[in-house]
């Protein structure tokens, strides 16, 4: 295992599986926080269960095409079968069902030769990495390091509301998801949001200190939703793709202010999502996978984004994830790179 960044030449990767994907009951506080926070109490009572068969089958067709594409590029691909997310489980004071195995990026953070299982604030994701355990153990046996954050209790006091009655994440214990983090060699960016709190940031800072001289850059106030990878995408050293709805010229993170910026063009959504309630905004269309600094896998509908990338010398391989908004993940989300050629570089010095 060796993966320090988001763009150096890709050699080995994990791809998700949408089988049995769904959402837990939204009456659960943690689900309301991260799934459909805009729902009213009465609307929340109507939501929960497995996604339609068509969504799951077509998504698995698209994932199979992604696997074939990556293998044709010479990348070693792992796709463990999805866990059974219909089973009920729980902790002190709560019960839920699972979510999906569609987004392996969300809860597993790879820094160099170390896997870190992150403490999601979503109760439904408590056992989400179970289908990757055998694979992670194999990496351990071949020399990787395998860490887990403290298992969160996920008691009700972690889940708060703001003055407007919207759900927010409290500070009762460390809680964050790996998809709140982007890697840039020995620099790591952490987005504080509904899926990552301040005490989770502190835990990650203290843990990465054990792995060497790694700087953690907190990002506050950019995007209060969840993950970072539809807000900021590192394309290669010195070139970054930014979401113009969430980042402005004067709010570009200080560490990136000398970089060349591609402002993501408006997202093209020619076909409305099959379901009216979606786990992602249209900006999941900018959620791309860099195979190397010169090669990207991008949503085939995003013609303007593809042209912008090509203007910077990046070759684009267009592919589709027909239900990325419904399931909550684009090409970066549904993959977890475990081996890239890059090392622990200082790209910001």
TrEMBL record:
UniProt keyword list: Transferase
Chain segments annotated as coiled-coil in the UniProt record: none
Protein name per UniProt: Inosamine-phosphate amidinotransferase 1
Family membership noted in the UniProt record: Belongs to the amidinotransferase family.
Keyword Transferase: yes
Segments traversing the membrane: none
High-level lineage: Bacteria, Bacillati, Actinomycetota, Actinomycetes, Kitasatosporales
Highest taxon of the lineage: Bacteria
InterPro entries from the UniProt entry: AmidinoTrfase
Keyword Transferase: yes
